[in-house]
Each structure stands twice: as structure tokens, then as C-alpha cells.
Design a protein that fits this description.
single chain, mainly beta, 4-stranded parallel beta sheet, signal, LRR_dom_sf, CWI-Assembly_Regulator, glycoprotein, Protein ecm33
Length: about 400
């Protein structure tokens, strides 16, 4: 009896101590990670100290209910978690300027991903593929692909300023509930989203190709600025919010054969190789139509309602403005301007409509037409500076 009197409290204290190690944990050295290796489920956050140096192995852990976080750990070289399947909250890494490897072979679910300033990280060892995540933001890394990111749905998806990122194929992605934004990556970036059917806002800069064969509907903006692709095709797209094609120097063909509604403004300007605008099914534009450039032909014969203004100006036009003048009173509710042959085509606010024409700006937007969402702009100066500095380390 006396033995039980002492041993039982000791066992209870031991169990309490063990349980405590499976909660929030700060890792200053590998020994701290070894201390939680027996926790198949860690109920809390793992914070990797900025003072940690070398390789980190998170062995034994299968689930983290909280976050994995490291900010400023410039001497962390690689992180391995061979058994980890899910991170309940955030997977945030920032300023790990010597990180070369992330090996999470079983990881499939993450609350969110936010990686910034990881210039030495070139690839992901995510063999099972992350198929569930909320927001995903990957900026200023050395990644050459996103293999291992196999999302089915996503909220925010921002891929910015990854200058070695050459190709992205997210085959499983079907829906995005927030902004999809690609900007400031490798100039010849190829993007394939073969099964994406619906989304909200999608903006693209500095890409060489984009494939969205299944895209049917966007509730927000679809915009392209300064791209290198020759053709844009959305064979199943029926409706979108603001629609923008701006400063795409090689764009010669836009194919949206079943597009019927633009729920916002529709802006085409300074795409000097675009000779034909053929949108035979387009019926409704709730904002303004603002097209300027060097195109020959325009087919908008299906228009029945333009709630905003109408501006159509070209240097090379063989189209006749008579049709649009005839529907001006019944279809077009706002201001009207149509000129098939002008030496200096401009957007509705007087900015240059071609790269060769004179104008006061090279980033025009039209009143009532589509404008760039602030969230879709390239990475700000601080992050870009941080990235550039990190590459020198």
C-alpha cells in the first residue's frame, strides 16, 4: 500500500510532464525537436528560433494542430518532417536565406502557406502532394516549379517574384474563392490550370503561356498585363467581372467564343499585334467598353446592353463604325467614341492606345472599365529588397 502511495503520484506527474511536451514548442536546437519526437499529435505551434543553425528533423510527429513558424532563421539549411501529414494552421517561413530543402513527404493538408525570402529553395520534396490549403502565398523564393502543391480548392493564391519559376501545373485545382495572382516571376513562366472551372479574381503578369480550358465563370476580374503569350483561349468562359488585356506585346489572338457577359469594364489597349477582336456571343457589359490599338476587325454583333461608355479606336481598322452608331441609343448608355482610322488611338481617358502612339502614360485605365486590383500588384519594395539582399548571402 505504501508503495502505491508514492508511485501513483509519481506516474501522474510523469504523464503531466509528457503531455506538456506535446504543446507549444520553441526549437532552439535539434535536441528540442528530439524532445517532442514521441508526440504523434502536437497540440499547438512549433516555432523555430531564428538562432537555430543547420538541419532540422521533426521526426515522429504526424499532426500539428497549430502552426509551424520560422522568421529570420538565416542559418536553417533544411527542414525534414517525414511523418507529418497535416498542419492545422499556418506554415510560415520568412527570411530563411540558406534554406535549400523542405522534405515533407507525407504532408497533404495545411491551414495556410506563407513563404517569403527563401532564395536558395529550388524544389519541394512533398511526395504525397498538398491537396488542401486555405491561403497560399509564395514570394521571393528560388523555386523552379510548384511540384508538390496539388490543391483541389484554394482561397488566396499569390505567386510573386519567384524569378526562377519556369512552369506551374496545378492539375487538381477546380475552384478558387479569392484572388489568383501571378506576377514578377520568370519571364517565360508557363501556367497550366487544366481543371479550374470557377474563381473570383485572376491577374497575370510576366508569363509566356496560360492554359485555362475548363474555366467557365469568374465573379471578379480577369486581367493580363505585360505578358509574352501569343494566344489567349478560354473556350468555356461564359462570364467574368472586369476584363483587361494591357501591354501584351506578342498577343495576336483572343479566343472567348462563348463569352456572353462582362460584369464590369472591358479594356483592351496597347496589344500591337492583336489584329482581330472577335467576341460574337458577347451580349452584356455592365461597365464600359474601351478598346484601342492597331486591330483591323471587330465583331461585337451580339451586344444588347452596355451600361457604361463605349470607346473604340484603331490605326488599322477596316471595320465600320456605322453599326455601333446605329446601336448607340438603344444599347450604349454612356459616352460614345468610334474611330476606325486614327493616327493616335487613345483610351477613353486620353492615354496612348498603342506602344508607338504618343500619350502621357503607359499604364492607362478607363473610367468605368477594369482597373488593377491593389492586391495583384507586384511585391513591394521592402520584400523585393529583402530578396535581392538574401541572394548575396
Amino acid at each position: 500500500m505504501s508503495f502505491a502511495k508514492y508511485i501513483l503520484p509519481a506516474l501522474a506527474a510523469s504523464q503531466m510532464a509528457f503531455a506538456a511536451t506535446c504543446g507549444d514548442t520553441t526549437i532552439d536546437a535539434q535536441s528540442d525537436a528530439d524532445g517532442i519526437a514521441s508526440c504523434s499529435k502536437l497540440k499547438g505551434d512549433i516555432t523555430i528560433s531564428k538562432s537555430f543553425s543547420g538541419s532540422l528533423s521533426l521526426a515522429g510527429i504526424e499532426t500539428v494542430t497549430g502552426s509551424i513558424i520560422c522568421s529570420g532563421g538565416e542559418n536553417v539549411t533544411d527542414i525534414t518532417a517525414a511523418s507529418l501529414t497535416s498542419i492545422g494552421d499556418a506554415f510560415n517561413l520568412e527570411g530563411l536565406t540558406r534554406l535549400t530543402q523542405l522534405a515533407f513527404s507525407e504532408l497533404t493538408s495545411v491551414g495556410s502557406i506563407k513563404w517569403n525570402a527563401l532564395p536558395k529553395l529550388q524544389s519541394l520534396n512533398f511526395d504525397a502532394g498538398v491537396n488542401h490549403a486555405g491561403d497560399v502565398s509564395i514570394q521571393n523564393t528560388g523555386l523552379t516549379s510548384l511540384d508538390g502543391i496539388s490543391l483541389k480548392t484554394v482561397n488566396l493564391f499569390e505567386i510573386e517574384n519567384n524569378r526562377d519559376l519556369q512552369k506551374i501545373n496545378i492539375n487538381n485545382l477546380q475552384n478558387a474563392t479569392d484572388l489568383i495572382n501571378f506576377s514578377g516571376n520568370y519571364d517565360a513562366l508557363e501556367i497550366e490550370l487544366p481543371n479550374l472551372g470557377t474563381g473570383t479574381n485572376m491577374t497575370f503578369r510576366n508569363i509566356s503561356s496560360i492554359s485555362v480550358p475548363s474555366l467557365e465563370k469568374l465573379t471578379g476580374q480577369l486581367g493580363f498585363w505585360g505578358t509574352e503569350f501569343m494566344t489567349f483561349s478560354a473556350p468555356n468562359l461564359t462570364s467574368t467581372g472586369d476584363l483587361v488585356f494591357m501591354d501584351n506585346s506578342k498577343l495576336s489572338n483572343i479566343s472567348m467564343p462563348v463569352l456572353t457577359k462582362v460584369n464590369g469594364g472591358f479594356n483592351i489597349a496597347r496589344n500591337d499585334k492583336l489584329s482581330t477582336i472577335d467576341l460574337p456571343k458577347l451580349e452584356t457589359v455592365t461597365g464600359a467598353i474601351d478598346f484601342s490599338g492597331m486591330f483591323n476587325n471587330v465583331d461585337l454583333d451580339g451586344l444588347t446592353d452596355v451600361e457604361g461608355g463605349f470607346n473604340l479606336q484603331s490605326t488599322e481598322g477596316t471595320f465600320n463604325c456605322t453599326h455601333f452608331q446605329n446601336i448607340r441609343k438603344t444599347v450604349i448608355k454612356g459616352t460614345f467614341h468610334c474611330d476606325a482610322k486614327t493616327n493616335n488611338p487613345t483610351t477613353s481617358n486620353g492615354k496612348s492606345g498603342t506602344t508607338s502612339s504618343t500619350g502621357s502614360s503607359t499604364s492607362a485605365t478607363s473610367s468605368g472599365a477594369a482597373v488593377a486590383n491593389g492586391a495583384s500588384m507586384a511585391v513591394g519594395g521592402v520584400a523585393a529588397f529583402f530578396y535581392t539582399l538574401a541572394q548575396l548571402l
